[in-house]
Design brief:
The chain has one domain: TIM Barrel (Alpha-Beta Barrel), CATH 3.20.20. It is an alpha/beta fold. It is globular. The chain has an eight-stranded parallel β-barrel with strand order 1-2-3-4-5-6-7-8, surrounded by six helices.
Length: about 220
């Protein structure tokens, strides 16, 4: 399973990239707005740090404008995947961009039927938002199970990118279900390597080492 960082903060990306396990980055307009820098400047810097997909979202809502914006974003760097919202206009734009060889991440997925349509339109990634479903009293991971099953049934090459991840358990459950990618905020990513027993074990080893006679 590939691990993506969901942020537009370059320092967070640099930190996780230094661990040697970062496979890609997802951004969205809300994350970019926090950084007070131009979108293109951020994307160029991120693509210089990460050797993998970097999702850049359009802000247009009609297909012709989405296509033009997607083409402009794709020209910034070869690693850019254009992020398109799941609407009928988004489906039109996705099909058009794919015909031009531009890879698309279709976002704001909340049902398996939406994911099916995205795959048929040629999306490279679909991004179901599990945390937001949990917030509304549904079970987000059930959606992941449905999408993974449908894609396997019909051998779609579209990858399932689990988004709106709130805690490490979401990451584990996505991996158990066979999702292709999980994207998560830095606050979740930094929890993945940690376990209290690891910390206690290391503390004990170091304390015992102090008792070893030194030459």
């Amino acid at each position: 399973m590939k691990l993506f960082l969901d942020t537009a903060n370059v320092e967070e990306i640099r930190t996780v990239a230094s661990w040697g396990i970062l496979d890609g980055v997802t951004t969205n307009p809300s994350l970019v707005a926090k950084e007070s820098r131009s979108f293109e400047e951020i994307l160029r810097e991120v693509c210089g740090l990460v050797d993998g997909p970097v999702s850049a979202e359009v802000v247009s809502v009609e297909a012709p404008a989405m296509i033009a914006e997607g083409e402009r974003l794709a020209r910034i760097h070869p690693n850019i995947y254009v992020k398109i919202p799941m609407t009928t206009e988004g489906l039109k734009a996705t099909r058009a961009l794919r015909s031009k060889g531009i890879r698309v991440n279709m976002t704001l997925i909340f049902s398996s039927l939406q994911a099916l349509l995205c795959a048929k339109a040629g999306a490279s990634f679909v991004s179901p938002f599990i945390g937001r479903l949990d917030d509304h009293g549904e079970t987000g991971m059930e959606l992941i199970e449905e999408i993974v099953t449908i894609f396997r049934n019909y051998k779609f090459t579209t990858e399932v990118l689990v988004a709106s991840v709130r805690h490490p358990i979401h990451v584990k459950e996505a991996a158990l279900l066979g999702a292709d990618i999980v994207t998560m905020p830095f606050s979740v990513f930094e929890k993945l390597p940690r376990h209290p027993l690891t910390d206690l074990g290391l503390e004990r080893f170091l304390k015992d080492w102090q008792k070893v006679p030194k030459a």
